[in-house]
Design brief:
Elements: E1 10-12, H1 14-28, E2 32-36, H2 52-56, E3 61-63, H3 68-80, E4 84-88, H4 99-106, H5 109-112, E5 122-127, H6 142-146, E6 152-154, H7 159-171, E7 176-181, E8 190-192, E9 205-208, E10 213-217, H8 221-233, E11 239-243, E12 246-248, H9 252-262, E13 265-272, H10 277-288, E14 298-302, H11 313-316, H12 320-332
Helix pairs in contact: 1-7, 3-4, 8-12
Amino acid sequence: MNAQVKPDSTAITLIEAITQALAYEMRNDPSVLVLGEDVGVNGGVFRATAGLHAQFGSQRVIDTPLDETTIAGLTVGLASQGMKPVAEAQFDGFMYPMVDFIVCHAARMRYRTRGRLTCPMVLRVPWGGGIRAPEHHSEANEAIFTNVPGLRVVMPSSPQRAYGMLLSAIRDPDPVIFFEPKRIYRQYKEVVADDGEALPLDVCYVLRDGTDLTLVTWGAQVKETLEAAEKLAGEGINCEVIDVATLRPLDFATIAESVAKTGRCVIVHEAPKTAGFGAEIAARLAEESMFDLLAPVERVTGYDTHIPLFRLEMKYLPSVDRIVTAARRAMAAG
């Protein structure tokens, strides 16, 4: 799917699109509030909430203690009582103290109460590596949460999708983990209309049509994957590029349709390889698309280590060259 660009739109970065979506929804829905560490007066560590405190006040843009467990508990409580809280985890590696409330309460609220209560909360999480930060600030831990029934797990890769998908996440009656690839927060600008028009969740976005090979990715790796597709085009290999965008629930039909056309698939993600979400996609292809495949599914991923600090960080992340090499291998097989 592709977002429609309005002629009166403004070019903004991904982080600005996040701020714009938050402001729009807070203006139009008084039940929406923002909470987290430094999100108020300071505007957030990445400036995602800059200006919201001055616009909406301390009752709706709440600076919390430096206590992720408390943030998660407050968020679940507010959501279960009719509010629509948008909490910030500040960094992906800070999520672990929140897991009890996310997994045991937020994700189970509808199930536990047989639909009498829901949990319309969003947890915004700056995600991934590539910004020269310590390891607790550079994790790609999305696969942990894709295993939890009752959660939506979303990861936009462009300003347009960040704006539209965040609006949908806030409006969703159930909990959404909204991972934000911080490496591309300010990497480029895109025209985005501040019109409140949401984009659908639970669908993959086909960013490039192709006939020879399917490249499946999400988050910050979309950039390298598109660059690899362009390089492969120069070799006569026509790649289809799919941005998964919503990891749970997975729109596997779009991936399967593409693989039925191309016969080959390379999955790219920056999380460690073992039990990364790419393994789930590969397993589904083995189960449901086996007879469409002309070659084994390839995975280009991070390594099974903690992300190394600074000098080796970019070596850890999948590169254009690694993606191209995997694609050539897939094309040569079968």
